[in-house]
Design brief:
The structure holds two protein chains of two kinds. Chain A is an all-alpha fold. Helix content of chain A is 74%, strand content 3%. Chain A has a single domain, classed as ABC transporter involved in vitamin B12 uptake, BtuC (Orthogonal Bundle). Chain B is of the alpha/beta class. Chain B has a single domain, classed as Rossmann fold, CATH 3.40.50. In chain B, a hairpin with a 2-residue loop joins strand 4 and strand 5. Chain B is globular and about 45 Å long. The chains are: A mainly alpha, B alpha/beta. The interface between A and B is medium-sized, with 17 and 29 residues.
């Protein structure tokens, strides 16, 4: 039973990781909280649903979801943050404008979906259950875990092993010096937002499949959890976001399994406060990460 | 090589450059000295495209760079080593140097990793260390090395001696002299006038956004006004 729950928790963790990696990536590079990230996640699920609903195969929906969410995220950056950055108001102005963008996207989705909860047709994802020892694992769970692991590995490779990743980290570290080395920060921002949006969109599809329930408000809880995860991990830290996603996924799954369900959020957020009391900068956070804009 | 003509820059109404003209010829080391706030860094940042001028022009070998964005300026072979070092502190020494290659934009590299390590051997020993953990002198060497990786035809240096111990300053300037011997053209901004004049062929003196004097460095070092104002010998 415990092993089964740990396995379920790991699958949930993977989805959280996909969502919060993009969130923390954007915070790391711009010190901005993109509060439209939840709406981008929801858009991914919607795109996949309407692709399947229109007769397309799920794999196509998955790819379209990733591309559309990525592009939407780039659009959010250009509309919400780019102009504010020129005036230096992006920290708090950006919070407000990204809430606005989130509302616009959510409202459009509400109109399109007619305020309905959407469900994929039966067997959109083949229902196959594997059993080994005492564990039950569905093919969907394997796919979710696999997709999350592959995407995290790709992101890690891009970020730490390629010239592109070095440019992103250079802009994160010191935008002024990066510009003097011939890097165009706006291009790096667009690329980063695309990655962040694509990961969120992928997470949206996985969540939509897992619960077979897609609605225009499905991004809201994830935005809140994502927020808690990147604080817990240490703002802007990629390994921190991964670790915190696992902590959150596990705690959530185990409390749902063993305790009254109403207590889940209470326990999660109490745990968050407790950890922050001991480690104010998060699990793997830098000393100055909480200091908004401090590294500029 | 570099021609700056009548450059004017203002930040929110405050005039930082009031019509600056200067030239740097190929192979020269030119120093720009003057007190804090004279506009020396503003001039470098305008040449680099970080700041846009109100009037005037910047040309490099006849190509107009006025108002070009920084990545365009680096593509023309003008690389700036910024003030107070600005290494990418969370990245390793090797990664910092590798980011410098972005400035090539596909141009052929004049300096590769082994050239940089020849100029600054300490960087090779520290190559896998976090740049933020280096000493001030090593960081200064790293940012110069990083700019070299970008294939500079003209190197702009902003206060390379700032906050460094005399022994380290001597090492950095020895390296710059070696680079000059290899044919690198350098525009050097320094508050330490004595150091700047001894390391350069020609110099400009800047005060309140204007060039007030220029000439051979050796001659300026003898100029009574300069010695009184900047060399601390009344």
């Amino acid at each position: 039973m415990l092993a089964q729950q740990l396995l379920n928790g790991l699958v949930v963790s993977g989805v959280y990781a996909l969502f919060s990696l993009g969130f923390t990536l954007v915070f790391g590079i711009q010190r901005i909280l993109n509060l439209a990230h939840g709406a981008v996640f929801m858009t991914g699920a919607m795109v996949a649903y309407y692709t399947v609903d229109g007769g397309g195969p799920l794999w196509l929906g998955f790819i379209l979801a990733i591309v559309v969410s990525g592009l939407l995220s780039v659009l959010v950056e250009i509309i919400c943050f780019r102009r504010l950055r020129k005036t230096g108001d992006e920290e708090f102005g950006g919070v407000v404008s990204s809430i606005g963008a989130g509302l616009v996207i959510t409202t459009i989705a509400q109109q399109v979906s007619n305020t309905q909860i959407l469900r994929f047709p039966f067997e959109t994802f083949p229902v196959v259950i594997f059993r080994f020892w005492d564990l039950r694992v569905s093919m969907l769970q394997l796919f979710m875990a696999g997709a999350a692991i592959v995407m995290v590995l790709i992101l890690g490779y891009l970020f730490y092993k390629t010239a592109f990743g070095r440019r992103v980290r250079a802009v994160t570290d010191n935008e002024h010096a990066a510009m003097l080395m011939g890097i165009n920060p706006n291009r790096i921002y667009s690329q980063t937002y695309f990655l962040a949006g694509a990961l969120a969109g992928a997470a949206g599809v996985l969540v939509g499949l897992a619960f077979n329930s897609i609605s225009f408000v499905m991004g809201d809880p994830y935005l809140m959890f994502g927020f808690a995860i990147i604080i817990l991990g240490g703002l802007g830290s990629i390994p921190g976001a991964l670790l915190a996603s696992v902590v959150f996924g596990m705690v959530q799954t185990l409390t749902i399994a063993y305790l009254p369900s109403g207590l889940t959020d209470t326990i999660i957020f109490a745990a968050l406060f407790l950890i922050l009391l001991i480690r104010p900068h998060g699990l793997l956070g830098q000393e100055d990460a909480g200091n908004l804009g401090g590294r500029r | 090589m570099l021609e700056v003509r009548n450059l004017k820059v203002a930040y929110s109404g405050i005039q930082a450059l009031r019509g600056v003209s200067l030239d740097v010829a190929k192979g020269e080391t030119v120093a720009l000295i003057g007190p804090n706030g004279a506009g020396k860094s503003s001039l470098l940042n305008t040449i680099s495209g970080i700041v846009r001028p109100e009037a005037g022009s910047v040309t490099m070998d006849g190509a107009d760079l006025t108002g070009m964005r920084p990545w365009g300026v680096t593509n023309a072979g003008i690389l700036q080593v910024p003030e107070s070092r600005k290494v990418f502190s969370e990245m390793t020494v090797l990664e910092n140097l590798s980011v410098g290659k972005t400035a090539l934009h596909g141009r052929a590299a004049d300096y590769d990793l082994s050239d940089v390590f020849k100029v600054f051997p300490i960087l090779e020993d520290r190559r896998n260390q976090r740049a933020g953990s280096l000493s001030g002198g090593q960081q200064q060497m790293l940012v110069i090395g990083r700019a070299l990786m970008g294939g500079p035809r003209l190197l702009l240096l902003d206060e390379p001696s700032l906050g460094l111990a005399p022994v380290i300053i001597a090492q950095v300037f020895e390296a710059l002299a070696a680079l000059k011997t290899q044919g690198l053209t350098i525009l050097l901004v320094e508050q330490n006038a004595h150091l700047a004049l001894s390391a350069s062929d020609r110099a400009y003196v800047m005060e309140q956004g204007k060039i007030v004097k220029s000439g051979d460095s050796a001659a300026l070092a003898e100029d009574p006004e300069i010695t009184a104002l900047y060399l601390g010998q009344a």
